[in-house]
Amino acid sequence: METSQILKEGDEEPPSQLLEWSCSDNGVVTLKKETIFNRFWPDATSKQWNDWRWQMANRLRSLQALSSLLNLKPYQVSAFKKLLEVFHYSATPYYLSLIDWSDPEDPIRKQAIPDLQEASFEVVGDIDPLEEEEDMPVPNLVHRYPNRVLAIVTNTCAMYCRHCTRKRIWHEGESASSRKDLEAMVAYVRSTPKVREVVISGGDPLTSNMDNLDWFLGELGKISHVDVLRIGTRVPVVLPMRITDDLTKMLASHRPLWLNTQFNHPREITPEAQEACDKIIRAGIPVSNQSVLLKGINDSVEIMKELNHSLQKIMVRPYYLFQCDPVRGVEHFRTSIWKGIEIIEMFRGYTGGLSIPTFVVDAPGGGGKIPLQPFYLLSATDKEVLLRNYEGMIVKYYNPQENGASKPKKTNGNGKSGGKAALFKENAKIVIPQNTPRFARRRKKNLQRCLDTHNQQAFPFWKDN
Ligand code: SF4
Q1: How far is CA 190 from the centre of its chain?
Q2: Which of 153, 164, 291 to mutate to test the pocket of ligand 1 (most atoms within 8 A of CB)?
Q3: How many other C-beta atoms can be found within 10 angstroms of the C-beta atom of residue 336?
Q4: Rounded to the nearest whole angstrom, what is the distance from the C-alpha of residue 25 to the centroid of ligand 1?
């Protein structure tokens, strides 16, 4: 069955339309729209659509489907064929339904649909830049940080995110760790008392066999020095119907359990995704988010603000914002480090701390996560530091000394200079930029009188206009 209709200006367009156009001899352009549902799953019922098994079974994964989706020309088909031999693809009908097919730059599309730019794997990036394979005491268990380990329990994901750090394992196909492999991981954790936290990752652990996952979580939970378990999954984003009551009941039986997911764009926060997160949270499992900073997808302050505010509204805590790793086949998603710092700079102070993730670079060579933020510490002596706030206010902060708190030295300023130097030379504590909204509000609240009194004593260089 194929349905198509002529798009007229002002038409309300359903989501997920695939657009085709034709041009008549007299130059009239006709746009046809067809929904992705009609093209690929014309007979699907809503019951099937909401069943995660149906979603998994009906993922688009073939070259033929990709060719149909992108209207590929024959020469493009061969280029994609070569690409898919290295980096396969698979996406759930649900996630594909979020794409605006009329926009080649659509942020959902970019995460799900292969792009020939990934073929730069031949020249740029590393297979395993984080050197996870080097830190595996037993197969698929990464022990990098002193007191926590990461278990890669499956290669399978509901969707293969084009920016994935573990693209290197995709060629192994869709498989999960055997019970024997899981037992080896449990044995290592049991014999390593310093491990207090186990992160269960993949692939996506929530695509794996539930009995195995239940067993694995249970065995880890029995180890006395393991305090906390954590699951990393993108299922709430790409396959939210997988979060069933049975699954949350099983997960709840392994608390204290934390769950980290990966929303990268506000349009991923659909009612379905919200309901999935809500079910997990109601089961007593806190949900946090680890976004990846991706060029053309979320590398803007506005999008990041909308994303993190929306996450906070659905009770999902923004946790990390990752610099995209220098993985082979991912270079076109990578942004400058300064972009991440700029985003954090525009968050801190302007919005509440609970909606601000920590920006981190995962250091190549297995160095682990390095947090980065704007420069708030400007300079320091043993006794005092100069700090900058989000508005540009500079403050001298007395640093308590080991043998008791240091006392500020009384110095005589000349009353004329300003800026950072004044803080060290003069008996001043703060340099305050003028005309900020915050001070406008303070003035409104009639605090100016207090400030003026304070400034005359402490800020001889203060000018109020
Ligand atoms: S769900 Fe995670 S592991 Fe799977 S492809 Fe996406 S980023 Fe990679």
Answers
A1: 31
A2: 164
A3: 12
A4: 47
Condensed to tens digits (0 to 9), the pLDDT of residues 393-437 reads 999 999 887 765 445 444 444 444 556 666 666 667 677 776 776
pLDDT of 79 above 60: yes
Are residues 388 and 376 in contact, defined by beta-carbon separation less than 8 angstroms? Answer: yes
pLDDT of res. 108: 98
More reliable by pLDDT, 66 or 366: 66
Nearest CA to ligand 1 atom 8: 164
What percent of the chain shows pLDDT beyond 70?
Answer: 78
Residue 363, pLDDT > 80, answer: yes
User: Helices then strands (H, E): number in the chain?
Assistant: 17, 18
List residues with catalytic annotation: 144-145, 148, 157, 161, 164, 166, 325, 362, 369
95 CA from centroid of ligand 1 (Å): 14
Phi-psi region of 16 (alpha: psi -120 to 50; beta: other; left: phi over 0): left
The answer for 125, left when phi > 0, alpha when psi is -120 to 50, beta otherwise, is: left
* Sole residue written with tokens 């009995």: 211
Domains located in the chain, CATH noted: 1-43 (no CATH), 132-371 (3.20.20.70), 377-458 (no CATH)
Average pLDDT across the chain, whole number: 85
